[in-house]
Amino acid sequence: MSIHTPKIEKKVTLSTIAKMKGKEPIVMVTAYDALLAKLFDGEVEMILVGDSLNMSFLGKEDTLSATMDQMIYHTQAVCNGAKLPCIVFDMPFGSYTTAELAIANATRVYQETCAQAVKIEGGKEKADIVRALSDNGIAVIAHIGLMPQHVRSEGGYKVRGKDEADIKALVEDALELEAAGAAIILVEGVKAEAAKAVTEAVSVPTIGIGAGNVTDGQVLVWSDMFGFFEAFKPKFVKHYFDGAKAIREGIETYRNEVKAREFPDDEHSY
Ligand code: KIV
Fold it and tell me: Which of 30, 138, 225, 256 lies at a C-alpha separation of 20 to 30 Å from 241?
């Protein structure tokens, strides 16, 4: 049996992450519960408690109905499981529409969970919100490009950065968000050329998802990368494990053994 050795031994902070830009790729993954977070502890620099949990954990069509209470509950679970990664709280849809609301909600995040930063979706139109949060001592990750919280207003998930004008717009977004105090720019669903332009333009780290191999770090949603989420598979998702197949085989074996009165056997009985 192999002995598992954690790769990371010290608590990862946002300043650790800032120093990694251009030097060592940052590894980030989502988690929504303590069990999984514990397995990721010591393996990844960052854990995102993403509002994607509304789809994979709760079985909803999109992320829009996630609530502050739900996100706080799951972030507390992740905090209980993982001690070393820098944990990021994904602000749900509608929780940061004004500076006052964003500050009140993000204050709750710092007071009720161990998250070190909050993530909000939006381009330069959200710079005021980023500034209000960072001026109040709350670290922000700005999520640009394809923004899942815009799925209904935009009529689907649309890849960005396909032409010069859009690449320029994304770079402008990133620069304004950085100037407003964003600690990290997360870039989702953009052509690699656009992600490269953004990464080169800003001095804070960039983390990509579906943005090619050009950003300072990568993030994947755990249920996508481990093959549990079967509703659809975006092109950028790589399966590192066939989770759904493994669970189906496990449940089938259990069922067969119970039906055949093979389980529990003497070894598993008092
Ligand atoms: O909610 C989430 O998991 C996210 C990732 C797609 C970055 O925002």
Answer: 256
Q: Rounded to an integer, what is the distance from CA 44 to the centroid of its chain?
A: 12
Tell me the one-letter amino acid at 159.
Answer: V
The verdict on the CB of residue 29 being under 6 Å from ligand 1 is no
Q: Is the dihedral of CA 214, 89, 130, 173 positive or negative?
A: positive
Total number of domains in the chain? 2
Question: Are 210 and 146 spatial neighbours (Cβ–Cβ below 8 Å)?
Answer: yes
Supply the CATH number for residue 23's domain.
3.20.20.60
- On whether residue 230 sits in a domain, the answer given is yes
| Whether 188 is catalytic | yes
- Residue span of the structural domain in which 265 resides: 243-270
Q: Does the C-beta of 173 come closer than 6 Å to ligand 1?
A: no
Q: What value does the mean pLDDT take over residues 236-259?
A: 98
Cα three-residue angle 14-18-22, rounded to 5 degrees? 150
Residue 3 has a pLDDT of 62
Residue 239: name the closest of 257, 227, 253 by CA.
227
**Which residue CA neighbors atom 2 of ligand 1 most closely?**
50
Instruction: Write the pLDDT tens digit of every residue in 72-112.
Output: 999 999 999 999 999 999 999 999 999 999 999 999 999 99
52 CA to middle of ligand 1, Å? 6
172-182 tens-digit pLDDT: 999 999 999 99
